Amino acid sequence: MTDEREITLTVNGTEHTIEVEPRRLLVHAIREDLDLTGTHIGCDTGNCGACTVLRDGEPIKSCMMFATQADGSEILTVEGMEDLPEAGGDLHPLQEGFREEHGLQCGYCTPGMLMSGKAILDENPDPDEAEIREGISGNLCRCTGYQNIVSSIEYAADKLDEKAAADGGVVAESGESDTGAEPDTDANTDAARDSAAAFDCGVENCCGGPAADSTYEHIEGPDDRFDDLNGELDRDTTEETDE
Ligand code: FES
Ligand code: FES
Asked: Long-range contacts for 42-48 (Cβ within 8 Å, ≥24 apart)?
């Protein structure tokens, strides 16, 4: 028996209503139900940050949240960056920075890095190197050694500052986000974990969500709705291709 729930997500300014199983992860809803494959999956365990998106202005690892938990949220993915006001109809300064400062090689981590970079600059338009490194500490890159990524974010900060000066204002005040919520540069916060842990999918022995210690053990538990699956997780375990 499939118990699907209807949820509404506003992604990059467009509202979508989709039906998802309660255990469907947000990253799978974004990639497979909405066909926005710019958000990558690297580990599916909350370690790599490739799946980072902004939810109501806060960076979250979308493999650590059920899609139903994001019902009613505003989501920003890498596909929406060029439509942001600070992009001016072209590449967002962060995207430009990654191009100019060679902040990517294979590019697999780049969408997540861009989203974390945006969260950093939303919170603090003039971060120093240590603050940038702290802000991207939840994002792993296997290629660049991070220095060029830091330089890319610094480039974007300078560009945004120049733009703000030219406009006679400030693009983003410290501590504010253009999507309204207080950003947090740690996408795997205690609050996020608490939120996931508090989630109840409705199954009698719900594990409490993907962030809980007993990850997915409920699949093999006594609930016969899951016994039918013969222990197979309904999660996409196929190899990801670079998008
Ligand atoms: S896919 Fe690695 S943290 Fe989500
Ligand atoms: S550019 Fe390849 S993983 Fe970061």
From this structure: 42/108, 42/109, 42/112, 42/140, 42/240, 44/235, 46/188, 46/210, 46/211, 47/140, 48/109, 48/112, 48/139, 48/140
Give pLDDT tens digits for 185-241. Answer: 445 444 444 444 455 555 455 545 444 443 333 333 334 433 444 444 444 444 444
Residue of 47, 60, 189 to test ligand 1 pocket, by largest number of atoms within 8 Å of CB: 47
List pLDDT tens digits, range 125-172.
Answer: 999 999 999 999 999 999 999 999 999 999 999 999 998 888 776 554
Q: What letter does residue 87 receive in the DSSP assignment?
A: G
**Type of residue numbered 33:** D
Distance 181 CA to ligand 1 centre (A): 22
Angle between helix axes 110-123 and 93-100 (nearest 10 degrees) is: 120
By residue count, the chain amounts to 243
pTM of the model: 0.73
